[in-house]
Amino acid sequence: MATLSAAAALSDLRISARFLRRMECQTPLSLYPESKRAQRPIGAFCLPSTAVQIAAGDLEEPALLVDLEHVGPYGEISDAGSVGTIGSTRMRFCEDQVITTQLRPYLLKTASPPEHAIGSPEWICLHVNETIMRPRLLFYLLTTPRYAELATILSTGKQHPRISLDTLQSIEVPMLSLDEQDALLARLEPLLEQSTALLQSVESIRQLIDAAFADEFGLDVRELQTHPGEQSFDLSLTSVADSPDARFSYRYHSPSVRRALSRLRALPHRRLRDLLSEPAVLGDSVSPDDYERATERHYVSMVALKYWRFDTDGLADVSETYFQHHSAKWVCEGDVLMARSGEGTIGKVASVPANISGVCSDFVIRMRPDQALIRTDFLRYCLTSSFYQHLVFGEKKGLGNNTNIFPVQLHNFPMLSLPLEQQDRICDRLSAAVSEADANARRAHLLRAEIQDLIERTVSD
């Protein structure tokens, strides 16, 4: 009976094994099924959204654009800028206090939107009744591993999984009194502020890499800026005749991407493929029945790369059988991985540390450097730098948030080809800062774990 009533609360039906197993639980739609507190669906304390669609074109007044790529999994908003013109439909958040992504909800992109901000139609906008639930507490609940796990089970779509508004509003959460909510938030907010400050040093690693590359090679990131008058330009057929996929998009042929390619090709370089011991590959897909808890055989998805460093937090484990049957896609120490899909994640890079046992997912590109030609860290730093990230920007295919890049495109990147001694010197220059950033990221994760523990202990009392 619990299975039928829970499934009936959703707007769609599916036959996923994980979904059906979840429906067998006593409270399958609860974020904290073990809690003895009264629980209510999120939709019970959400008012109708005030968000409105705005069409492409000039805005009446500039607005802060907050797309998926601008929000981190801790709710931090970075690199968002004010725009006066938009090239596609956006949402104006108006009085909604919480936004969370419907696309790949396991990435935990949830935020409290700034006033007068606009953003992607991929945002689910929630207008919370503050007399029942504090919006900031709902924000915290939607950034928990519990939500990532449940939202993944309830999402539909294999390549681009999404959770619908109706399904999200069916998720039940334990209810605290307003006084309890306020007391909990008073303890959570300082912890989040500390973790956010620590993670800012992780993001600053790209700036340090860019500064080192500017000193060593004269690669000035200001050359990547789009100048006035470059938003549109003429393109002759002969100029695209040597393009293997004959793309005509502005992004692919934009002057800033052409400048990045020209500057990199002016330096000693080789094709990326020539610096790898084997071709770059995509990983393998997985079915719900392949997952198994606590095997220490990780399914290495894009979640591992979200902080520009390899992170096992949030990775699911797979069965020993699946692991052994997919040995061709194992990750090994020294591999360099790149996220190949999704705005906000595409292009993120990390290297695999020692003592990691896992299978590369189908949304991650695995590169295995030839150690006689290029150091793992040097390849990682190159691909992290703004110049190579700008090549990813130019090469990615697709519309909106469904962009992709593939190994065959990376193979043709003009990678800096330097003597190993010079590579080592550059890596040594960056190693101390990278180590410090990694330590800060670990401290931030400990604070985040403290936040999760505090929430769980409070709602379970």
**In which order are the strands of the major sheet placed?**
3-6-9-4-5
Largest sheet: 5 strands, mixed
By secondary-structure content and strand pairing, the structural class works out as alpha+beta
Query: What is the multimeric organization of the chains shown?
Result: single chain
Whole-number count of domains: 2
Q: First CA to last CA: what distance?
A: 27 Å
CATH H-tier superfamily of the largest domain: DNA methylase specificity domains
* Average pLDDT taken over every residue: 87
- How many H/I helices? 14
Question: What's the alpha carbon Rg, rounded to whole Å?
Answer: 23 Å
* Approximate shape: globular
The name CATH uses for the topology of the largest domain is Adenine-n6-DNA-methyltransferase TaqI, Chain A, domain 2
Task: Write down the CATH class of the largest domain.
Answer: Alpha Beta
The proportion of residues in beta strands is 15-25%
Description:
By secondary structure, the chain is of the alpha+beta class. It folds into two domains: 4-174, Alpha-Beta Complex (Adenine-n6-DNA-methyltransferase TaqI, Chain A, domain 2), CATH 3.90.220.20; 205-438, Alpha-Beta Complex (Adenine-n6-DNA-methyltransferase TaqI, Chain A, domain 2), CATH 3.90.220. The chain has 14 helices and 19 strands. It has a five-stranded mixed sheet with strand order 3-6-9-4-5, with no helix packed on it. It has a four-stranded antiparallel sheet with strand order 2-10-7-8, with helices on one face. Strands 13-18-15-16 form a four-stranded antiparallel sheet. The mean pLDDT is 87.
